[in-house]
Design brief:
Layout: E1 2-5, H1 11-24, H2 35-43, E2 50-55, E3 61-72, E4 76-86, H3 95-109, E5 115-116, H4 124-134
Parallel strand pairs: 4-5
Antiparallel strand pairs: 1-2, 2-3, 3-4
Length: about 150
C-alpha cells in the first residue's frame, strides 16, 4: 500500500469514494460536490483542502483522506480531518490507519497543536478504530451545526 499526495487526476475516484461513504452513512442524496468544484477548491490558486490517496499494488486508489486547517481560540492551529474513506473491499487491512497516520504526520509537519474530526455516534467500527489506535477523546457534549447558504435568501 502506498500513501501519496492526491493529484487532480485522482479527483474522479475520490468523488466515487465520497459517494460510497455517503451511502454507508445513509445519506446518498447529500453529496452535491463535483469533480470541478473539488479541483477548484483543492488545486486552484488558493487551495482550501489537501488530499492523500492510498493506492494498492495495482496502483488503484482504494482510500482517501481529506483535511484542512482550522483555528481554535483555545488551542491554536489544528488540522481537521474531514474524511477518511476506504473502499469496502479493502477495509480491515490497515489502509485507514496508514491514512490516519499520514494526516497526523501532516499536522505535525505544519506545526498544528492537534487534530480534530467527527464521527457518527452509530459508526461503531470507526469509533473502535479511533479508540484502539489513538486513545482519542470522543466528546458527545457538543452539537454540530450547519447552514446551507442556498437555502438563505
Amino acid at each position: 500500500m502506498t500513501i501519496r499526495e492526491g493529484k487532480k487526476e485522482d479527483l474522479p475516484r475520490a468523488l466515487e469514494l465520497i459517494k460510497e461513504l455517503a451511502d454507508y452513512e445513509k445519506a446518498p442524496d447529500e453529496v452535491t460536490n463535483t469533480v470541478e468544484q473539488m479541483e477548484k477548491d483543492g488545486f486552484g490558486d488558493n487551495p482550501i483542502y489537501g488530499i492523500f490517496v492510498a493506492e494498492n499494488d495495482n496502483q488503484e486508489i482504494v482510500g482517501i483522506a481529506i483535511y484542512y486547517y482550522r483555528y481554535s481560540t483555545w488551542k491554536g492551529k489544528r488540522i481537521y480531518l474531514e474524511d477518511i474513506v476506504v473502499t469496502e473491499s479493502e477495509r480491515g487491512k490497515g489502509t485507514g490507519k496508514l491514512l490516519f497516520d499520514r494526516i497526523i504526520q501532516q499536522g505535525k509537519k505544519t506545526e498544528c497543536s492537534g487534530m480534530v474530526w467527527q464521527v457518527l455516534d452509530w459508526n461503531e467500527p470507526a469509533i473502535n478504530f479511533y479508540k484502539k489506535y489513538y486513545s482519542a477523546t470522543l466528546d458527545g457534549e457538543w452539537i454540530n451545526c450547519s447552514i446551507s447558504f442556498s437555502e438563505i435568501s
